[in-house]
Design goal:
With 127 residues, this protein is an all-alpha fold. It is 76% helix and 0% strand.
Length: 127
């Protein structure tokens, strides 16, 4: 997720080159957007698989797709050579983690309490 959100790093690529640093923005060069798109796809896929494994409900998936859409829109529209625009996009992405966390909390609260009791009863009878 860090690589997807860190378009700010492209604002420092001139400084990185001057200082001889090996940043991802210099490494990816003109292919930065395709690389970030691939990382965004990997992040979204991982979040969906994690949601399935942890039996999340619909709020989690709505939030995941909303975050992926917003980050994809930013990636599509950002001018990576414009320091101010990259910085603004980075600052605007702070809510992604908050939205995902809130969706996990809401999804957990929406789970039916009898499901948890049933799992507890079954697991204790196996012992």
């Amino acid at each position: 997720m860090t690589l997807c959100m860190d378009t700010r790093e492209d604002t420092d690529k001139d400084d990185d080159a001057l200082l001889g640093l090996k940043s991802t923005s210099l490494y990816f060069g003109e292919n930065t957007k395709p690389w970030l798109g691939a990382f965004l796809l990997a992040m979204t896929s991982s979040l969906i698989v994690s949601g399935i494994q942890s039996e999340q409900l619909w709020p989690y998936y709505v939030a995941t797709m909303s975050c992926a859409t917003m980050l994809g829109k930013q990636l599509w529209s950002v001018n990576l050579d414009n320091r101010e625009e990259c910085g603004r996009m980075f600052r605007d992405s702070w809510w992604v983690g908050i939205l995902l966390f809130a969706s996990i909390v809401v999804s957990t609260l929406l789970k039916h309490p009898s499901e948890e009791k049933t799992d507890t009863v079954h697991s204790s009878s196996r012992q």
